[in-house]
Design a protein that fits this description.
By secondary structure, the chain is an alpha/beta fold. It contains eight helices and five strands, in the order βαβααβααβαβαα. β4, α6 and β5 form a beta-alpha-beta unit. The protein starts with a strand and ends with a helix. Bound molecules: flavin mononucleotide (FMN). This is NADPH-dependent FMN reductase.
């Protein structure tokens, strides 16, 4: 299976990137092909709502790394969203990528894909991930994708907070479960 992983953290060795690494390790061991795009280290402009894509076969007026990301995503069977919680939702860097799905969202629905959400946050509020998970559900509902698993880890602010927990192994197990 072809898997596209989209990460949102600007921290290369943070909490969510550890989950991303372990998930990819598990999926790789299962023989899946994982391509990872770290949105914070890519050039991706926010959608300008010009409508050009809708009359030009999904082509965007902005020439940036979405030219690489969207073809990979269109070709993938599964998308993995990986993000720290920023103001109770995904990071702006990842949201910019998701907004740009707009150009090809009809093509993204067919054939339908699976999706996975991996997320971390510092707080321990029981409601911390509510907005993010509702957002994720809405994206999947809109695109008619199937949820294949979520891993939400609260109470972690830095890599050392998550390293010795069960969550890296849980991320790997999720990758292996596919
Ligand atoms: C700009 C910013 C906004 C944040 N917003 C939240 C938040 O709304 N809720 C929360 O629990 N943690 C919040 N955090 C903390 C991060 O989600 C947390 O430290 C996470 O583990 C960082 O993941 P990373 O190391 O992969 O970047 C925020 C951190 C930053 C820098």
């Amino acid at each position: 299976m072809k898997i596209v992983m989209l990460t949102g953290s600007p921290r290369k060795n943070g909490t969510s990137s550890l989950l991303a690494d372990k998930f990819a390790e598990g999926a790789g061991e299962k023989g899946h092909h994982v391509v990872r795009f770290d949105a914070a280290f890519r050039k991706v402009g926010g959608c300008m709502a010009c409508g050009y894509c809708k009359s030009h076969g999904g082509a965007c007026v902005q020439k940036d790394d979405m030219d690489e990301i969207l073809p990979a995503l269109l070709d993938a069977h599964l998308a993995v969203f990986v993000t720290p919680l920023y103001y109770w939702d995904m990071t702006a860097q990842l949201k910019a990528v998701v907004d740009r799905f707009f150009a090809v969202d009809r093509a993204l629905t067919d054939p339908p894909k699976g999706a996975v959400l991996l997320a971390t946050c510092n707080s321990r509020h029981t409601w911390a991930f509510d907005a993010l998970t509702e957002h994720y559900k809405a994206i999947l509902r809109h695109l008619r994708w199937d949820d294949r698993g979520t891993l939400l880890v609260s109470g972690v602010g830095a890599r050392e907070d998550i390293e010795d927990t069960e969550y890296p192994q849980k991320a790997k197990a999720l990758g292996l479960s596919l």
